[in-house]
Amino acid sequence: MTTDTQQKILDAVDAGFEAQLATTRDFVAIPSTRGAEGPCQDMIGDLLRQRGYEVDDWHIDVEDLKDLRGFGPIEHDFSRARTVVGTYRPSNNAGKSLILQGHCDVVPAGPLDMWETPPFSPTIKDGRMYGRGACDMKSGTIGALYALDAIKAAGLKPTARIHFQSVIEEESTGVGALSTLQRGYRADACFIPEPTGETMVRSQVGVIWFRLKVRGFPVHVFEAGAGANAIMAAYHLIHALQKLEADWNERAKADRHFKAVNHPLNFNPGIIKGGDWASSVPAWCDVDCRIAVLPGWSIAECQKEILACVSAAARDHRFLSNNPPQVEWSGFLSEGYELVNSAEPEAAFAKAFGAVYGGVVPDRAFTALTDTRFYGLNHNIPSLCFGAKGAAMHGFNEYVELDSLRKSTKATALFIAEWCGVEKV
Question: Which CDD domains match (predicted)?
Fold first, then answer.
């Protein structure tokens, strides 16, 4: 690709950036929490059709996915779950095919009064766009779409097949991405513009979700000693799991990518529900937990360690020793992923990065997970993950930095052109 061609694409990104931000605002304004992603998928489908892409919009059937590697159990109403894929087919097939993927699901906003601006009324100020999903990762998804637009606006068209995929469930199971593979979508490489702070994810953790179900013995509080407090018993188990977390982080010191990361494997009791009455010793307590695992670790073996930890802690408890808790797997059962066998797409991205940022692409050992794992682990499709800077993902006042978003859109556009090839329209 010539310097002149590169510059035409970069100029086209600049020319379309205000329109890109307007579309991003519209996308962020949709409260697409788990089970409510439909309007976002409608919007993506419309955007793809307007651009002339061949659109595949289907309902996800869990029965089709449950036996596939990386599947996580679905507990909520899944009757409206959909995946949307827009396909571009070249008239002259000369380059390498590509999957561009973003997820439209977002995590709950939490107490609205703790946001400076409403989470689903995206606000631009001080060079940032604020809103739930503005960073993670709606701005990246729309950025990839406008990267394709910039190539067209520059008078060019890709010379390879491109699948633009909008998925759900990235934040809880990943079955949206898994559904695209079950549907048969493949490419020579995958690119996911998650907000990585302008770094390339070299290695990422896997994640296990599980639920502790603790049952106690209820009595009136005036005779609390005669009962068994399920909430307090759950805390006993949480403390034991914190020790398992510490053990796993000691093992992580031997990992070639994560040994330089302080405490890469995080355990989090994220939801706790229990009891019925303030003056009754609680008879039940459920705790939803998340813990990370390293690439190469067996999910099944890690599950066994979690069960053994909970069992040992229960044996060391006066009530739980005779009333053992249950452990339910409640979402992610996801392996970690290391980017390997990816020299060709990385070389193409390195050229794009150099033209926009200069220098060498920085690597990152990521203490969260992305959908890249499905492509690399299930089908040996090298899956790159790179995106803009931002902050407060899953927190209050989430934002993406607009200058960084502009640059990452440019890098995405140049990568598509380099990898897929382009010719004049």
Answer: M20_ArgE_DapE-like
**Helices 3-15 & 17-28 angle (0-180, nearest 10):** 50
47 with 190, same domain: the answer is yes
Calpha distance 116→78 (Å, rounded): 32
Contact 335, 299 (CB under 8 A): yes
pTM of the model: 0.97
Residues with Cβ within 8 Å of 420's Cβ and at least 6 positions away in sequence, in order, are: 95, 96, 97, 98, 158, 159, 160, 162
Q: In what order do the strands lie in the sheet with 128-130?
A: 123-125, 128-130, 399-401, 390-391
Residue range(s) defining the domain that contains residue 193: 3-204+336-424
Assigned token pair, 147:
């990267």
Q: Which residues pair with 384 in a beta bridge?
A: 191
pLDDT in tens, 227-286: 999 999 999 999 999 999 999 999 999 999 999 999 999 999 999 999 999 999 999 999
- C-alpha distances (whole Å) from 369 to each of 110, 153, 293 are 22, 34, 10
Same domain, 212 and 267: yes
Cβ–Cβ contacts within 10 Å for residue 50, how many?
Answer: 8
CA 61/CA 340 separation, integer angstroms: 31
pLDDT tens, 23-82? Answer: 999 999 999 999 999 999 999 999 999 999 999 999 999 999 999 999 999 999 999 999
Q: Which residues contact 183 (CB under 8 A, 6 or more apart)?
A: 56, 58, 83, 85
Between helix 17-28 and helix 38-50 the angle, nearest 10°, is 150
**216 close to 284: Cβ distance less than 8 angstroms:** yes
| Residue corresponding to tokens 């009891």 | 275
**Number of structural domains found in the chain:** 2
